Amino acid sequence: MTRLFRHIIFCTPLLLCLLFASCEQDRTCRQEMTAHARIYLSAVTTLSDDSHTEAAPDSITLGLVGCDSLVLDNAYSERTACVELRADTTHTQVVVVYHEETDTLTVFHTNEQKYISLACGCIVRHIIDSVHSTHYRIDSTAILNTVVTAEKENHLQLWLHP
Amino acid sequence: MLLLLLSVRTSAHVYGDSAIYQGLFIKLDLATTTIEVARSKGTLQTYEGAISVRLKNRYYPTLEGGYSFGKRDAEGGLYKGKGGFVRLGLDFNGLRKRIESPHAFLVGLRVCSALQRYDLCDVKQNTPYWDTGARVDFLNRQAMDWWGEVVAGCNVNIASGFYMGWAVRFKLLFTSKNKDQRPEAYYIPGFGFRNNTNWGVNYYIGWRI
């Protein structure tokens, strides 16, 4: 019995230490961490009998004011554009170029910092308060969902006229 | 300390003869410290020990405690913390034959708690389009966590009054995992990295007094 116990006490722990030494929380982020406001785009055509048809805009370009990157440079009729709202101010301006005319869409929002984990850091969640725009090609706007997180939901809708 | 413990060893035989009380055990853990230091390259350190009493050769009411300190970085920031922990529970001696043997196979349960102060520094904000490079700090935070453990191991009498033993632990965290997105501690003293469950191993040297 004593021999058995002494065998167990000296041999088993080394194996156990090797087994458990590898348990650690993931230090690399593996989830979507950027909150995008998704804008649903609709091109509206008024017919002769005053009814409307709605379709994807045939060619549209979206860019952020203050940022070089284009949000959407589209000749293939995409219906949604993902816009990253600013975390350092409470409004974000988007330039919309449609049929060679330029509109500016201004989204007013509040920002909230949400801690996710040490691997991923913080996500900035936005609450959309209001939306204003010029009306060269933008007919109207609507807020579909005020809370902008990393979830893929539509938040704004733009109706454009050709 | 060792000399003190060895000097009182003779009195232990008096307790060993009792039908109810067979001695007080003091143990120091070597494995946790070694594993933590090895895998964190010395940035995290934990020291722990235990006191238990052998009753009726079968029951071991146990109090364990320890202290952790250090820092650990991840892709999104840096954790720095220090704090203590306690575990309270009961072990059963699983030996069926020769239960009066000084050796024991132990199986038990623990209720555990840890209190710590910590900082989360240089935490990344995820705004790649704007690339402001802004980082935030969450400083001087305090947290208390609770968890339960199932423990199995052995306690072996190596020489008169001197024991060695090991234990394997399955740990289940009771305190929630970031439901309301508070900046939580990345590491919990005595529990390990903040997962819903963890495994642990101890390798003890101990003395019966």
Number of domains of chain A: 1
Order of helices and strands of chain A: HEEEEEEEEEEE
Mean pLDDT of chain B: 87
Which shape of chain B, going by the Cα principal axes? Answer: elongated
Largest interface: A-B, 43 and 52 residues
SSE succession of chain B: HHEHEEEEEEEEE
Unreliable stretches of chain B (pLDDT < 50, length at least 5) are 1-15
Q: State the end-to-end CA separation of chain B.
A: 12 Å
Helix content of chain B: 10-25%
Find the CATH topology of chain B: Porin
Percent strand of chain A: over 45%
- Regarding CATH, which class of chain B? Mainly Beta
Question: Which term fits the overall shape of chain A?
Answer: elongated
**DSSP, total strands of chain B:** 10
Helix percent band of chain A: 10-25%
Largest sheet of chain A: 6 strands, antiparallel
Overall number of strands of chain A: 11
Name the beta content range of chain B. Answer: over 45%
What is the helix tally of chain A?
Answer: 1
List the helices and strands and how they pair.
The complex is a heterodimer of chains A (about 160) and B (about 210).
Chain A: H1 2-20, E1 37-46, E2 52-55, E3 60-64, E4 70-74, E5 80-83, E6 91-98, E7 101-117, E8 121-133, E9 138-143, E10 147-148, E11 154-160
Parallel strand pairs in A: 1-11
Antiparallel strand pairs in A: 1-2, 1-5, 3-4, 3-6, 6-7, 7-8, 8-10, 9-11
Chain B: H1 2-7, H2 9-16, E1 21-29, H3 31-39, E2 44-55, E3 59-74, E4 77-93, E5 104-124, E6 135-159, E7 162-173, E8 187-188, E9 192-193, E10 197-208
Short description:
The complex is a heterodimer of chains A (162) and B (209). By secondary structure, chain A is mainly beta.
